Amino acid sequence: MYGTLKLFFFSLILFLSSCSQIKYTSSENIPTYFAPKKHHSRKASHSGVRRFYLWGLVPPQHTVDVDNELQNDGLISAARIEIREYQEFMDVFWTYVTLGLYKPVRYEIKGYGVKE
User: Fold this and answer.
1) For residue 70, which phi and psi values (nearest 5 degrees)?
2) What is the separation of C-alpha 64 from the centre of its chain, rounded to a whole number of angstroms?
C-alpha cells in the first residue's frame, strides 16, 4: 500500500512538472508583421502537429518557422499573423490513455499577405 501511494505521488509530481513547448520563430525569409499592412489581402493558413513523448520531456522543445510555413503557401510578405495551439478530442484521449507518455499538440498559423 505504501509503495503504491509513493508511486502515485511520484507520477503526479512528474506529470505536473513536465511540459511541452513549441517555439515560434522567424527565419526572415519573407517580411512578417503582426499588425495589418496595406495590400496584404490574400488569406493563407497552415496547420501542423508536433508530437511529444514522456510527459513532454522528449523533445524538450519543437521549433516552427512561421515565415517558412506561410511562404510554402505562396506568400512573399505576411501580416496580421495569428497562431493558435490546440488539441483535438483524440489528442486529449491518447494523452490520457497513455498517461502522458504521448502528447500531440496541433497548431494553426493564419495570416494575410501578398502572393507571387
Assistant:
1) -75, -30
2) 8
- The sign of the dihedral angle between the CA atoms of 81, 45, 23, 54 is positive
Confidence band of 13 (pLDDT split at 50, 70, 90): low
Is the Cα dihedral 98, 100, 102, 105 positive or negative?
positive
pLDDT tens column, 55-108:
777 887 888 888 888 888 888 888 888 999 999 999 999 988 988 889 899 999
The stretches of the chain forming alpha helices (DSSP H) are 2-17, 66-72, 89-97
Instruction: Please tell me whether the overall predicted TM-score, pTM, comes out greater than 0.85 for this model.
Output: no
* Residues 96/51, Cβ–Cβ less than 8 Å: no
> String of b and e for 94-115 (b: at least 16 CB within 10 Å)?
bbeeeebeebbbebebbbbbbe
Other residues' Cβ atoms within 10 Å of the Cβ of residue 79: 20
Distance CA 95, CA 115 (A): 38
